[in-house]
Amino acid sequence: MFANAVIGENVAVSPEEFSYDIHKSIENTINKKEGTFFSDKGAVLCSFIKTISVGNGKINARDANIYYHTTYNALIFKPWLNEVVSGEVVDCAVFGAFVRIGFVEALLHISQISDERFAFDEKNKAFISQESKKILKVGDIVRARIVSISSQSGQMKIGITMRQPFLGKLEWINIDKEFAKKNKAEKTEKFEKNEKKYEKK
User: Fold this and answer.
1) Residues 91, 170: one domain?
2) Which residues partner with 151 through β-bridges?
3) Integer Cα distance of 192 and 127 in angstroms
4) Counting C-beta atoms within 10 Å of the first and last residue's C-beta, which end of the chain has fewer, N or C?
5) Within this chain, do residues 67 and 89 fall inside the same structural domain, yes or no?
6) Cβ neighbours of residue 127 under 8 Å, at least 6 residues apart?
7) Nearest-CA neighbor of 175 among 108, 96, 114?
8) Residue 13 CB: number of other CB atoms within 10 A?
9) Which pTM does this prediction carry?
10) What is the pLDDT of residues 91-111, one digit of tens each?
């Protein structure tokens, strides 16, 4: 998900940076681009690490910037299709929840919360199961799987699902684990009893 990458691009240094050393000016400019989506890499820029090389500056008649072709190391956030991720619910709307994973927000559609049917509680901005009364709200930590990755207007769009075993709100996962553990223990106990009955015969 997070990776150290080598990026090459033309960095536009603005006039307000001209008084600094060129490497410092480029570093300042790149730092302002944190959160930028690189469509060719399918990744978001998280943090500048270091400059590798800087080419000669070129001017453009359309603006006052000087453009330097720069190669640099940076920390990027690159999600993968089918990757299991953890995140925090940061907002809820009638159509689904927004979950913060890494440097981006992913959409968890209401139909992908669970196999159960959920309804949106607009007053409390939460989703409530019509069957088990489970609640999903802002601040909850969840585990989900990435099912779609796309870009729109220079922004990364991610779709996630929790409709798979051992995905969902962490509290629900722990309950499912305890249930599975108890169910396994009961089956083992039943098997051992049957074995003893067979041995007596």
Assistant:
1) yes
2) 156
3) 43
4) C
5) no
6) 92, 97, 110, 113, 118, 119, 120, 121, 135, 136, 137
7) 114
8) 19
9) 0.77
10) 999 999 999 998 899 999 999
The whole domain housing 59 covers 2-77
Residues 68 and 102 in one domain: no
Token readout for 192 is 């051992």
Angle CA(72)–CA(78)–CA(84) in degrees, nearest 5?
155
Could you report the per-residue pLDDT of 34-48, keeping only the tens digit for each? 888 888 888 999 999
Residue 162 inside a domain? The answer is: yes
Q: Give CA–CA dist 104/191, Å, rounded.
A: 49
What is the tens place of the pLDDT at every residue in 151-196? 887 789 999 999 998 899 999 988 766 656 656 555 666 655 666 6
Q: Locate 15 and state its tokens.
A: 């006039």
SS3 category, 158? strand
